[in-house]
Amino acid sequence: MPRIDAERFLRDLNDLRQIGAYKTGVHRPTYSPQDMESRRWLMERMAEIGLEPSIDGIGNVYGRHKGPGPHLLVGSHIESQNYAGWLDGALGVVAGLALARAGLPVDVCAFADEEGHFEGGFLGSRSIIGELSEEEIDRSRSRNDGTPLREALAAAGLAGKPRMTLEPGRHKGFFEMHIEQGRVLESSGLRIGVVTGIVAIWQYRIVFEGQQNHAGTTTMAERRDAGLSAIRLLARIDEEFPRVAAERSVWTAGRITLDPGAPSIIPGRAEVLFQFRDVSPEVLERMDAALRALVRESNRREKCPATIEQMSRATPALCDPAMMAALDAAAEEEAPGAWSRMPSGAGHDAQYIAKRMPVAMLFPPSIGGISHHWTEDTKPEDLALACQVLANGAARFLAA
Amino acid sequence: MPRIDAERFLRDLNDLRQIGAYKTGVHRPTYSPQDMESRRWLMERMAEIGLEPSIDGIGNVYGRHKGPGPHLLVGSHIESQNYAGWLDGALGVVAGLALARAGLPVDVCAFADEEGHFEGGFLGSRSIIGELSEEEIDRSRSRNDGTPLREALAAAGLAGKPRMTLEPGRHKGFFEMHIEQGRVLESSGLRIGVVTGIVAIWQYRIVFEGQQNHAGTTTMAERRDAGLSAIRLLARIDEEFPRVAAERSVWTAGRITLDPGAPSIIPGRAEVLFQFRDVSPEVLERMDAALRALVRESNRREKCPATIEQMSRATPALCDPAMMAALDAAAEEEAPGAWSRMPSGAGHDAQYIAKRMPVAMLFPPSIGGISHHWTEDTKPEDLALACQVLANGAARFLAA
To answer: Are residues B86 and B98 in the same domain?
Structure first.
């Protein structure tokens, strides 16, 4: 089995942490000077290890293994959420370097904008599988400040560069190591999660149309309060969803907007952003049907008609059984009894790469389950353990 | 009984409508050039009628009757909400001119900023009863664009002018005519409302503290979703309030803010602005107790603690029985069977003037119940009728 250089792996992670450092985390939004500096840093590391580095027109950094195959693809993303953690994304990229350094035949990649600083998100992984159109690039704008994506690419020196796509048949599979971003491992005292699949997010916009009116002079009987209709629907979802969801399903109303949102005005319009996630297509269909039934029930009962629009309807990405088996064996070897299989509740680049090759993911625990915040952290011994398990798993899968 | 000059009354209203005209309504935010032009127009009309006009340091316009008393005070406000109706406020001021023109011994007033373009609101009526401090003026800013009130007063040429207060003992009472701003009269086929009192608004900020977290990786059991706790409380209010409220009580959740308000983030904080209104102190106390009991219940049941802060706790302003009786008789005389007593669900300058003298209010109907919008309107015959009823009522009250 290959041995990774744990000290060098942790030093690389800490070196990268200096770029865009913010408190104990980092601020490296996609195509910012800090983000581009981190991409140049990555290409220098790749070259040192003997990989052939390149950057493409969407900002993907790719380190190509020069030797013979079969090859693996290993990586994640290198930009961060705003003022967020040092490991999210960066961990999987630096783990790729560690595997290459240990002599494994891996191409290492950092996909651009997994974090979705620009509309659309997952720009790099969607581009490399050929699912990002020029039209979408023309349209997309920064969610932070509205800058057109084209302008941001030009400012980053990427305008006019070709966009790479995966070489068909080159890779036996893609491994992505990523922090868990939840508390499942920590609360069970485990050190490694072998991911079974990446849940799909089904997201909806539910809009209630009422009648904006004076909150003093409009009697309760006369009102058509769109906010109240929204509250009643959300309360019904809260009652019904536990009956139709699976054990690990999650559902969230992350935004409620009442229009105009003034204390003395009856809301004339209410908008709810609602989503649920599961790894099973059947469970997703069941939750979708329950939601639509509740909206129909609302429309029979309420004076404010509700319309529901599905904004996204992804397919769960299942991890490859042979790759999972290799990771299981590696985890049991390095951390006997201290690992478990689990779904990924968050989205990852692997869900797109899965459209082109087998994929697998590995999680070390997140302290306190915190992510997307500068306090995000993982114990160094857990980072090193996960990287060694990834290396062993990759070697087992290549040998299988 | 005095006869008003209905034609002249309607012409005055339409002349005033030209100042800051917007579609069929007006845009005269407090201290804007349009608002100040309307105040100068009003002072000219006062002078024509033989009233002694003045404007004070908060923008109150006052037309003092030169003859002997007992006097009445008649008026309302002259600025408008943004892009709003031509009658709201202006009607009561121009009715005051009509009464003075008909020979009644009235002082006519237009109180500044009833509409609350500046923080605090009701600046003029609060100033004239001595309940607006210099410190509050120092602090207050425009809710439209943040301009400090002091700057706005200076730009309007009002800096340094003294602020008038009511002359104790001068007035037997204050009459305010105002559009209804609701559909009670119209839906009952009535033409006049004699107001029994102005409801008090009790307003609350309810804040739920949860734990902001990733909407994919945080299990339902682990979550502390502040938005969900807020929804459950609002659903309970929706169930319980009909049991404790009175027939004409109203309650409104006009704003719900989830923080950070992103589709994939569990809300870590939720804030609800909630208010209720009634004309009865007992009913207000009952609703307050019910709300606090529901918040306690929420805190026993939910993982996100809720705190409730009462932002305003006004006293209902009851109209004077003798003034109401005079208006009843005048209404029955001019519009037999086509009038009713009713509370005012909206706030009015009269609620502050009621702290210094007896007050009464009279409503003509609002077409479609619309107000605070440029489509606000009332039939001219209803306007003229209401003005005549006001004149007769004022004469009856003076004679009583």
So the answer is: yes
Residue type for position B184: V
Backbone angles phi, psi at A179, to 5 degrees: -65, 150
Distance CA B106, CA B390 (A): 12
Q: What's the domain range around A64?
A: 6-199+316-399
User: Which CATH number belongs to the domain containing residue B207 in this structure?
Assistant: 3.30.70.360
A49 and A171 share one domain: yes
Question: Are the CB atoms for A198 and A351 separated by under 8 Å?
Answer: yes
- Burial class of residue B226 (count of CB atoms within 10 Å of its CB; 0-12, 13-18, 19+): buried
Of B217, B242, B345, the CB nearest to A217: B345
**Domains in chain B, number:** 2
Q: Are strands A192-198 and A359-363 parallel, antiparallel or unpaired?
A: antiparallel
Do B252 and A266 lie within an 8 Å CB cutoff? Answer: yes
Q: Is B32 on the interface with A (CB under 8 A)?
A: no
Cβ(B194)–Cβ(B324) below 8 Å:
yes
Digit-by-digit pLDDT tens for chain B (400 residues) are 899 999 999 999 999 999 999 999 999 999 999 999 999 999 999 999 999 999 999 999 999 999 999 999 999 999 999 999 999 999 999 999 999 999 999 999 999 999 999 998 999 999 999 999 999 999 999 988 999 999 999 999 999 999 999 999 999 999 999 999 999 999 999 999 999 999 999 999 999 999 998 899 899 999 999 999 999 999 999 999 999 999 999 999 999 999 999 898 999 999 999 999 999 999 999 999 999 999 999 999 999 999 999 998 888 999 999 999 999 999 999 999 999 999 999 999 999 999 999 999 999 999 999 888 999 999 999 999 999 999 999 999 999 9
| Structural tokens at position A264 | 């003395």
pLDDT in tens, B345-388: 999 999 999 999 999 999 999 999 988 899 999 999 999 999 99
For residue A1, tell me if it sits in a domain.
Answer: no
**Looking at A255, A284, A313, which one is the last position of a domain?**
A313
Of B253, B265, B372, the CB nearest to A214: B372
CA distances to A125, A289, A299 from A304, rounded to whole Å, are 41, 21, 7
Cα gap A373→A27, rounded to integer Å: 10
pLDDT in tens, B222-268: 999 999 999 999 999 999 999 999 999 999 999 999 999 989 899 99
The reply to whether residue B252 touches residue A231, judged by beta carbons under 8 angstroms, is no
* Residue located via tokens 């990405």: A317
ipTM over 0.85: no
Same domain, A212 and A140: no
Residue B371's Cβ-count burial label (10 Å; 0-12, 13-18, 19+) is buried
> Does residue B1 lie in a domain region?
no
Residue A246 sits at the chain B interface (C-beta within 8 Å): no
Contacts of A274 (CB under 8 A, 6+ apart): A203, A204, A206, A237, A251, A252, A253, A254, A291
Q: Do B254 and A227 touch (CB under 8 A)?
A: yes
Do B103 and B128 belong together in one domain?
yes
Burial class (CB in 10 A: 0-12, 13-18, 19+), B170: middle
Q: What are phi and psi of A341, to 5 degrees?
A: -80, 150
Helices (H), B90-139: 90-101, 123-128, 134-139
Q: Please, are residues B192 and B338 in contact by the beta-carbon 8 Å criterion? A: yes
Best probe of the A interface among B223, B252, B363, by most A CBs < 10 A, is B252
Please answer whether residues B357 and B173 qualify as being in contact, where contact means their C-beta atoms are separated by less than 8 angstroms: yes
A238: nearest CA partner in chain B: B228
pLDDT tens profile A52-100: 999 999 999 999 999 999 999 999 999 999 999 999 999 999 999 999 9
